[in-house]
């Protein structure tokens, strides 16, 4: 039995959802960088190399956000090369599967173009930031563009969308860092 195409289901839900009704994000000033703490804590304990690579990709995502770079597959692929320590991170070439094959993410002739269109929508000012960030995270999760590391790619995408608009208000060391409040 073939698993249901979860990407098709996501695209239907995405079209039918009124994203404009999402609440606005509130700025909560803090000097704590939760992503960095997570990488330096539990991720590093489990796998120091994975933590180092994820932090390097996080820094790239934040730098791209500071430049106000719009999301694109090329941008995500650059972060993914860092995450996977790979010279290439191409778009997948076949259906992808997750959860022991229970979830399938179909691949059609339109998949890459549809993904690019979804990423482009992360700058739509008529959609509240919370909705754009959540939707971008889910777009990466359901388009499953890479053969490995899609959850990390989705998380970096979420960080980028928020940081590009100076949210959340937290930072590292520099007062000009994109996540600094």
Brief overview, please?
With 181 residues, the chain is mostly helical. Helix content is 52%, strand content 3%. It has a single domain (6-17, 31-164), classed as Fido-like domain (Fic-like fold), CATH 1.10.3290.
Describe this structure in words.
The protein is mostly helical and 181 residues long. The chain has one domain (6-17, 31-164): Orthogonal Bundle (Fic-like fold). The protein contains 7 helices and 2 strands. Strands 1-2 form a two-stranded antiparallel ribbon. β1 (96-98) and β2 form a beta hairpin. α1 (6-16) packs antiparallel against α6, α3 (48-66) runs antiparallel to α4 (73-84) and α6 runs antiparallel to α7. The longest helix has 19 residues, at 48-66. The protein is globular and about 50 Å long. The model is unreliable at 169-181 (pLDDT under 50).
State the CATH class: Mainly Alpha
The N- and C-terminal alpha carbons lie at a distance of: 51 Å
CATH architectural designation: Orthogonal Bundle
Query: Could you give a short account of the major beta sheet?
Result: 2 strands, antiparallel
Q: Report the helical percentage.
A: 40-55%
Overall geometry comes to: globular
Tally the structural domains. 1
Q: How many individual β-strands? A: 2
CATH topology: Fic-like fold
Largest sheet, spatial ordering of strands: 1-2
Report the uncertain regions.
169-181
Structural class: mainly alpha
């Amino acid at each position: 039995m073939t698993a249901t195409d979860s990407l098709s289901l996501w695209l239907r839900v995405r079209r039918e959802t009124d994203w404009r009704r999402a609440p606005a994000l509130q700025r909560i000033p803090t000097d704590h960088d939760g992503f960095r703490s997570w990488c330096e804590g539990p991720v590093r304990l489990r796998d120091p190399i994975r933590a180092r690579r994820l932090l390097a990709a996080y820094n790239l995502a934040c730098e791209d956000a500071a430049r106000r770079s719009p999301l694109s597959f090329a941008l995500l692929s650059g972060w993914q090369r860092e995450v996977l320590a790979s010279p290439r991170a191409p778009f997948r070439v076949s259906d992808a599967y997750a959860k022991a094959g229970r979830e399938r993410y179909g691949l059609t002739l339109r998949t890459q173009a549809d993904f690019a269109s979804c990423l482009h929508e992360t700058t739509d000012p008529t959609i509240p930031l919370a909705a754009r960030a959540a939707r971008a995270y889910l777009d990466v999760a359901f388009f499953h563009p890479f053969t490995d590391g899609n959850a990390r790619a989705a998380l970096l995408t979420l960080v980028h969308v928020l940081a590009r608009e100076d949210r959340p208000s937290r930072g590292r060391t520099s007062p000009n860092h994109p996540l600094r409040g």
